[in-house]
Amino acid sequence: MTTSFSSLPIVDVGALKASEVAAADVNALSKQLYDVFATTGFAYLVNAPLSFDHEEIFALAREFFTLPHEEKMKLAKKSFHRNNQNTYRGYFPTQPHLASDNLKEGFEIGSPVKNPTHPAPEAQKIRLSEPNVWLDKGAFGRQERLEQLHDELQTFASKLLSLLAVSLGKDANYFTPWLLDSLSTLRLLHYPPVPQNQAQPHDVDAVKLSCTPHTDSGILTLLHQDATGGLEVLNASKQWVPAPYVPGSVVVNIGDLMAKVSGERFTATMHRVRAPPPKPDALDARFGRFSVPFFFEPGEACVVVPVDGDGESVVYGEHVRQKMATWVEFQEDSGYETGTTEEL
Q1: Full strand arrangement of the beta sheet holding 42-46
Q2: What is the DSSP letter of 195?
């Protein structure tokens, strides 16, 4: 259960850089992660086994979001551009008509694997296992680097999942079958600064948000956040605790699915994002807040069963579709030519 923490713990995961992790390190890290996810649900991970540093990751994000709007819209999901065929992967613009407190634009990719073992059912309006969409290399030539980042984060998250299995008294490979046709998503996000005339809510005690309070749906989320700050985590005393930028760190948190699977020994903690400070050049994509979350998820057809055998099993595709009905980027926006979110 979430405790009344006042800051997020820091966990050094440098041992995971080894080709074979020593048994003592497995035991130590699995215990640390169990304690973190049973109390705060969030932590900073340092010395992560990644070849990318923050500077390159955010350079990739800025390069994409400074593209002309018409170029980004070529990759827009069908709900924003009815002539496009992609329904789940791709770009989504800000939606001020729908949610003035959830202003962000994003670009999402899944696994670079082209042929999943269990393709998405054709009858579904949103095809979770669809391939990624890209611009021509002349317009945006970072496909290979983003695909590599996705692969490295998938490998890193898989190592963390193995440690969680050990922490729950299971074999290190207990969760491996979950990862067949994994739906893990790498998302580039840009939160534009709030214009001066929108900077203050009418309620003086209210907080202007770029992303409303929520929990994540999957196994784990790995987040690269920039120095702008804004991420806040809700503790058991109903206080919003700032999670400021820690140089070189990756923020990790538990998703709803992992909380359920753990028998609620782990907690999926509510979090939100404050709006970036207002700036006169608020429409300039070089400014605002950038974040790059990686949502670690099982395959669409994966049947997820609690480790202690208590409680109902869930098919991940059904679980995530229920969550999607609440996500603003899948809501109908009269500012665009959209469909509806029925029968996701």
Answers
A1: 10-12, 42-46, 250-254, 220-225, 289-296, 185-191, 105-109, 90-92
A2: P
Q: Would 96 be classed as within a structural domain?
A: yes
pLDDT tens, 127-171?
898 999 999 999 999 999 999 999 999 999 999 999 999 999 999
Task: Identify the three-state secondary structure at position 73.
Answer: helix
pLDDT in tens, 208-253: 777 889 899 889 999 999 998 889 999 999 999 999 999 999 999 9
214 part of a folded domain: yes
Distance of alpha carbon 155 from alpha carbon 248, whole angstroms = 18
Q: Which residues pair with 253 in a beta bridge?
A: 42, 221
> Among 228, 237, 273, 227, which Cα is nearest to 253's?
273
Task: Say what the pTM is.
Answer: 0.90
Give the residue with greater pLDDT, 198 vs 36: 36
- Report how many domains make up the chain: 1
Beta-strand relationship, 10-12 and 42-46? parallel
Answer whether residue 337 is part of any domain. no
Task: Give domain status of residue 4, yes or no.
Answer: no
